[in-house]
């Protein structure tokens, strides 16, 4: 087997598997063995795609949309994205600045490939979404973790940003609302970070806003809304989370024209245009008022209240109150060095595996997100499942 592995590139041999997908696969294996696993590991809404969006897809099939799409997306979809950015974010883009991709993950991959040279450093405030680091490494960049804490609601301060910048710093990547912490950078906080970045004009910012509409405090802000940052920010978004369209695989960027054109160029050699039926459905999704998906956000808010209340009753779980997305990111370092039912817990990975094996609940280790003291728990599950999962976890650590 080792001989066969040696036939593979160093690139793939050095690449970590996605921790979230790996845990989901492990949970599926255990279910296949007959175990009653509650999956709280994947970032996937448990709602069906709204009917008005499905109807648009059916209409597209009946209208015989079946040909290759433009590499950067249908013009009608790009116009819908432009209008969405203007309506929701007060951002003005033209068609040359929009690129539609097969999910926001491909959008991020494209940006890394066209912006990074070997050795370029990318600042990642911790915790960060699990794939950022390896996407940067695939582009031969160097991920630089900026540690944050519960005390600052897992948000990077201007002082931390300034201290992390070196002559090799090329980019800053962050998500708001954040996966996994649920934290949201306010307009004031983003402005303070932008003031630091003004002293370093070589740094390009990637603002991942895929959870934009799953917001419990209101007032979503985008880094690109600042006039002095607009030409240096790539705004990444998509329909997977807020519209319950994870499997439809449509993401997009609004970016400086030179970056958008470069992403169009690389995508043309890798995947070409995204799925035609999904694109037609997304036109309808983005043109609809945001109020049409509010029922999902309201339910997530109820689940957040439920899970935070249940976590307070479990010893050793220290948690902030997430302002958006559908995750909690509790610090469980209280258990490090302890032995539970014969299992010694040395780190968050041990703890997540213990919870899976002893409580039949799938979570994700915080180590995958750049924070070794926490685990991520998704509350994109029914309230009954959340109650049962937390009861199992409480029993397993008692």
TrEMBL record:
PROSITE patterns tied to this protein: AA_TRANSFER_CLASS_1 (PS00105)
Key word Transferase present: yes
Pfam family name, one: Aminotran_1_2
E.C. number: 2.6.1.-
Domain Aminotransferase class I/classII large: 35-393
Signal peptide: none
Record GO terms (molecular function): pyridoxal phosphate binding; transaminase activity
Cofactor: pyridoxal 5'-phosphate
Source species, domain of life: Bacteria
Keywords: Aminotransferase, Pyridoxal phosphate, Transferase
InterPro entries in the cross-refs: Aminotransferase_I/II_large, AspAT/PAT-like, NHTrfase_class1_PyrdxlP-BS, PyrdxlP-dep_Trfase, PyrdxlP-dep_Trfase_major, PyrdxlP-dep_Trfase_small
Gene3D superfamilies for the chain: Aspartate Aminotransferase, domain 1 (3.90.1150.10), Type I PLP-dependent aspartate aminotransferase-like (Major domain) (3.40.640.10)
GO biological process: amino acid metabolic process
Family per similarity comment: Belongs to the class-I pyridoxal-phosphate-dependent aminotransferase family.
Protein name, as recorded: Aminotransferase
């Amino acid at each position: 087997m080792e001989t066969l592995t040696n036939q593979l590139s160093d690139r793939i041999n050095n690449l970590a598997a996605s921790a979230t997908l790996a845990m989901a696969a492990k949970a599926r294996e255990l279910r296949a063995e007959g175990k009653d696993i509650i999956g709280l590991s994947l970032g996937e809404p448990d709602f069906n795609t709204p009917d008005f969006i499905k109807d648009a897809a059916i209409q597209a099939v009946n209208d015989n949309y079946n040909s290759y799409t433009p590499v950067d997306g249908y013009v009608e979809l790009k116009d819908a994205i432009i209008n969405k950015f203007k309506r929701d974010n007060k951002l003005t883009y033209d068609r040359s600045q929009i690129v539609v991709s097969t999910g926001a993950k491909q959008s991020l991959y494209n940006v890394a490939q066209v912006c990074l040279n070997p050795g370029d450093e990318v600042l990642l405030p911790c915790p960060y979404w699990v794939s950022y680091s390896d996407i940067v490494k695939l582009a031969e960049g160097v991920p630089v973790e900026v540690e944050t804490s519960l005390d600052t609601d897992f948000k990077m301060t201007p002082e931390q940003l300034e201290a992390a910048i070196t002559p090799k710093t090329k980019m800053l990547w962050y998500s708001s609302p954040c996966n996994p912490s649920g934290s949201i950078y306010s307009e004031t906080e983003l402005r303070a970070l932008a003031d630091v970045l003004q002293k370093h004009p070589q740094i390009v910012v990637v603002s991942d806003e895929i959870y934009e509409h799953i917001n419990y405090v209101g007032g979503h802000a985008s880094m690109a809304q600042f006039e002095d940052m607009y030409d240096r920010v790539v705004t990444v978004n998509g329909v997977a989370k807020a519209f319950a369209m994870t499997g439809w695989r449509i993401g997009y960027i609004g970016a400086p024209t030179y970056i958008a054109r470069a992403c169009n160029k690389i995508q043309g050699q890798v995947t070409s245009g995204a799925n035609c039926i999904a694109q037609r459905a997304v036109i309808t999704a983005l043109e609809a008022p945001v109020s049409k998906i509010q029922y999902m956000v309201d339910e997530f808010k109820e689940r957040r209240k439920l899970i935070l209340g249940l976590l307070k009753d479990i010893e050793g779980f220290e948690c902030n109150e997430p302002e958006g997305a559908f995750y909690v990111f509790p610090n469980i370092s209280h258990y490090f060095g302890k032995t539970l039912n014969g299992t010694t817990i040395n780190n968050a990975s041990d703890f997540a595996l213990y919870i899976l094996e002893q409580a039949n609940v799938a979570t994700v280790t915080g180590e995958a997100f750049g924070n070794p003291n926490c685990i991520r728990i998704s509350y994109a599950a029914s309230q009954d499942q959340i109650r049962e999962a937390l009861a199992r976890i409480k029993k397993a650590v008692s």
